[in-house]
Amino acid sequence: MTEQVVEGVLSGPSPNGQWYWRPLDGTSTSVPVPPALVDPLWTSADNVRLRIRKAISGIEILGPDEIGLNKEPPGVLLNGKPLELPETPDVEPGVVVVAEVPYSRADPTAPETTAKYRPVVVTKVHPGHVVVRPVYSKNTEGHGQRLRAPVQAGLNPGAVVANDEEIISLDKIGARKGRLMAVDRRLVGLPEGRQ
User: How do residues 11-42 score in pLDDT, each as one tens digit?
Assistant: First the structure.
């Protein structure tokens, strides 16, 4: 039986701390990962490439894909374009950035999805986190206000800023899109400030 590198999906840990791995190609059921090979950074549903050996008795997990360890992780796309996350985000009240915003309700069609990258307006900055108001393409639930000058802030025409605020960790803040104009700063309760 020859050794091969196969990509699979993780599940776990179980109540007793056991992790399981299943090839993505669907040719096998989940197999337990030897505790010595478990990476503390794993989360359930991660895709992981492992070195395995297939035998009549099943799959034997040999270790991590050492060649793949040196590869760059795949990038995140936002609207089909690579999302660039700066090392230290340049944020201040009135700036529009892309951030990972948690859903207020679980999506019954995708319960494992808990957040979405979307534009937000920063309203307050604190050490380690910011307070933001998410921006939506339309006011479907009547919980926001249409921006007066969205294009100047790097947003699409008709953009709506939510009335409710969210607290977002600085590591969930991404690319800067623009800055609110004075009329929209007043709309979200910020002093006019610099443009």
Answer: 888 888 899 888 887 777 888 988 888 888 88
| Spatial distance between the Cα atoms of 55 and 168, rounded to a whole number of angstroms | 47
Residue 190's closest CA among 123, 92, 129? 123
Provide φ and ψ at 73, rounded to 5°.
-65, 150
CATH of the domain at 104: 2.30.30.110
- Lowest model confidence (mean pLDDT) among 6-20, 35-49, 134-148: 134-148
The residue behind tokens 């070195």 is 51
Three-state secondary structure string covering 122-156: EEEEECCEEEEEEEECCCCCCCEEECCCCHHHCCC
Which DSSP state fits 86? P
CB atoms within 10 A of CB 176: 17
In a domain, 194, yes or no: no
0.70 cut: is pTM over it?
A: no
- What is the residue range of 150's domain? 77-187
Q: How many structural domains compose the chain? A: 2
Indicate the SS3 state at residue 172: helix
What count of other Cβ atoms lies within 10 Å of the Cβ of residue 54?
16
Residues 153 and 101 in one domain: yes
